[in-house]
Design a protein that fits this description.
This protein has helices spanning 9-25, 29-46, and strands at residues 52-53, 63-64. The protein is mainly alpha-helical. It has one domain. Strands 1-2 form a two-stranded antiparallel sheet. The protein is elongated.
């Protein structure tokens, strides 16, 4: 069972800014990158314990992927 994903307004804006910035160098690159990021988020919702706990947070529910 997948967990529900929630995008904060900050996260959505950050992704848009990253994609816009990358498009300045290579207009085709953002599509690939955004797809990869969204795919990783989908995987994390299916397997929430598969990523590491963020050391600074020391909270089992706050995880990151690199």
């Amino acid at each position: 069972m997948a967990f529900q994903r929630e995008w904060s307004e900050t996260a959505s804006e950050d992704l848009k800014e990253i994609i816009t910035y990358i498009a300045l160098d290579d207009p085709e690159a953002p599509s690939n990158l955004s797809g990869r990021i969204i795919h990783r988020i989908e995987i994390a919702s299916e397997f929430p314990l598969s990523n590491r706990v963020v050391p600074e947070k020391n909270d089992e529910f706050v995880r990151e992927t690199i």
